[in-house]
Every structure is written in structure tokens, then in C-alpha cells.
Design brief:
Helix content: over 70%
Shape: rod-shaped
Order of helices and strands: HHH
Structural class: mainly alpha
Largest sheet: none
Radius of gyration: 20 Å
Strand content: under 5%
Oligomer: single chain
Number of strands: 0
Length: 91
Amino acid sequence: MRRDAATCGGCLVSAVGAVGAVWVWAASDRTQRHLGNEFENNGQDFGAFFLELPLVVVGGAVVPGLVYALGAWLLTRGRRSASPRGSEFHA
């Protein structure tokens, strides 16, 4: 796998993971309850918004990126052991 393709793929997976995590978080019943979808906004709690949203975005971006990096590392590790010594780096 070329380094540019691996980098682009990792960034794409992280972006999709962050957007997907925010989407799922925003659609959950618990979040809707905290953000005031009750009668006349009773129980509105923006602490959930300010505390949870950054964690959801970071977790959604980091976890898929780490899984992708682990998979790419495992794939290139198998190729390096099969290739002759000294030919693992190409310009």
C-alpha cells in the first residue's frame, strides 16, 4: 500500500467516523432529552452538549483511525517479511 493512499484512507475513515458518531449521538433519546425536546424545554441541560459533544467527535475520529492504522500496519508487516531484505523502501 502506498503511503499517500494509506494517509488519505486514514483521514477519510476518521472523518466518516466523527460525522457518524455525532449523528448517532444527536439522534439518541438521551441527547434529545437533555437538549430540551421535552414539554416547554423542561430538563434542558447544555452541560451534556458542552461535555459530551467534544468527546463524541474525538472518539469518533480516533477509534476508526486507530483501527485503520492497525490494519494497514498488519498488511504491510506481512509484505515486509515476504520481501527480500533491503527492498522494502522504494522511492
